[in-house]
């Protein structure tokens, strides 16, 4: 049987180890919970020629992108030359409203609703080419 001093020393080590493990679990949980989800939004325009026999889906560059929840703006950005935007969101839940605005889109804008991502998410918003855009030579 260990003497009382040795037992007290072992008890302190067990308490210290338990506290360390508890702290590591808490810190690990916090860092995982606070990880911000990323939303990849792809804005595309569909253009058809030859009376709709040939259609192309092209990225919309420099489109304004807005992510909203319940009317509150959570993130904004602009698409790159390929029509892509990556936006980082704070963790949350519910439905998100995605809005893309560009003069290349029919009506000047397109909208979509998507569930709040819990990690990374990708959404493609496709809209017809604006009827105001005329091909060269027409």
Brief overview:
By secondary structure, the protein is of the alpha+beta class.
Q: What Rg is obtained from the alpha carbons, in whole angstroms?
A: 26 Å
The helicity comes to: 10-25%
Characterize the overall form: elongated
- In total, the number of strands is 8
Considering the protein shown, what is the CATH homologous superfamily of the largest domain? Immunoglobulins
The helix/strand series, from N terminus to C terminus, equals: HEEEEEEEE
Unreliable sequence segments: 5-33
Could you name the CATH class of the largest domain? Answer: Mainly Beta
Mean of residue pLDDT values: 74
Count, helices? 1
Number of domains: 2
Which architecture of the largest domain does the CATH hierarchy give at level 2? Sandwich
User: The biggest beta sheet, please?
Assistant: 4 strands, mixed
What do we call the CATH topology of the largest domain? Immunoglobulin-like
Give the N-to-C terminal Cα separation. 98 Å
Structural class: alpha+beta
Percent of residues in beta strands? 35-45%
Give an overview in words.
- This protein has 138 residues and is α+β, with helices and mostly antiparallel strands.
- It has two domains: 1-34; 38-128, Immunoglobulins (Immunoglobulin-like), CATH 2.60.40.10.
- It has one helix at residues 4-33, and strands at 38-49, 54-59, 64-69, 72-78, 84-88, 95-101, 109-115, 120-128.
- Strands 1, 2, 5 and 8 form a four-stranded mixed sheet that branches.
- A hairpin with a 2-residue loop joins strand 3 (64-69) and strand 4.
- It starts with a helix and ends in a 10-residue tail after the last strand.
- Mean pLDDT is 74; it is low at 5-33.
